[in-house]
Design a protein that fits this description.
Strand content: 25-35%
Family: Belongs to the 3-oxoacid CoA-transferase subunit B family.
Keywords: Transferase
Organism: Leucobacter weissii
GO molecular function: CoA-transferase activity
CATH class: Alpha Beta
Shape: globular
Number of helices: 5
Protein name: 3-oxoacid CoA-transferase subunit B
Helix content: 10-25%
CATH architecture: 3-Layer(aba) Sandwich
């Protein structure tokens, strides 16, 4: 019953309000652009210098000058604008981005974020603009599989990987449930699996508070 990556992207898109300026990270976050409600005016920002980004370009219609930060061909919306890389980072650091959606290797129960490197010997560190967005965006949403391929939970008591930023994550959208970390621990706002909170807590290995409406 866990959500697919496309379903997860669609779920995140539901929570982006009208009038928002949003940065989408690499991977699953990129897919969010394809599921934003048509009746909302949402402006997408990419850190390599574009406002008004559209969804991923269809095969055969790619424009070599239109790529996002993950080097994926994208489209442009009417009124799109382009600017210097430094100006783009100024927007991120200056608090002008309402939401950022990014992936993570680990998120702690208090909202610490680790998403730029692991301890794997062959890992290529790649912080990009993540640290700027993590501290500069008004709200930080993380999208990730709840468990690694080895079965370890990515929600942890304390991150063991190098931190991107501390206490910055507002919400975690996983393939099993939606969590809100904070000073009092993890709150669960939605469960996608047909399991109860006690079972989910046992799988995660951390105490969870039920915050479902």
């Amino acid at each position: 019953m866990r959500l697919s990556r496309s379903e997860l992207a669609a779920r995140v898109a539901q929570d982006i309000p009208n009038g928002s300026f949003v940065n989408l990270g690499i991977g699953v976050p990129t897919l969010v652009a394809d599921y934003l409600p048509a009746d909302r005016e949402i402006v997408l920002h990419t850190e390599n210098g574009m406002l008004g980004m559209g969804g991923v370009a269809a095969p055969g219609s790619e424009d070599a000058d239109l790529i996002n930060a993950g080097k994926i061909y994208v489209t442009e919306k009417t009124g799109a604008s382009y600017f210097h890389h430094a100006d783009s980072f100024g927007m991120m650091r200056g608090g002008h981005i309402d939401f950022c959606v990014m992936g993570a290797f680990q998120v702690s129960r208090s909202g610490d974020l680790a998403n730029w490197r692991t301890d794997a010997a062959d890992a290529i560190p790649s912080v990009g603009g993540a640290m700027d967005l993590a501290v500069g965006a008004k709200r930080v949403y993380v999208v990730m599989d709840l468990f690694t391929k080895q079965g370890a939970c990515k929600l942890v008591d304390e991150c063991s990987y190098p931190l991107t930023a501390t206490r910055c994550v507002d919400r975690v959208y996983s393939d099993h449930a939606v969590f809100e970390p904070g000073p009092d621990g993890l709150r669960v706002t939605e469960i996608f699996d047909e399991i109860d909170l006690e079972t989910l807590s046992r799988l995660v290995g951390l105490p969870l508070t039920d915050a479902r409406a």
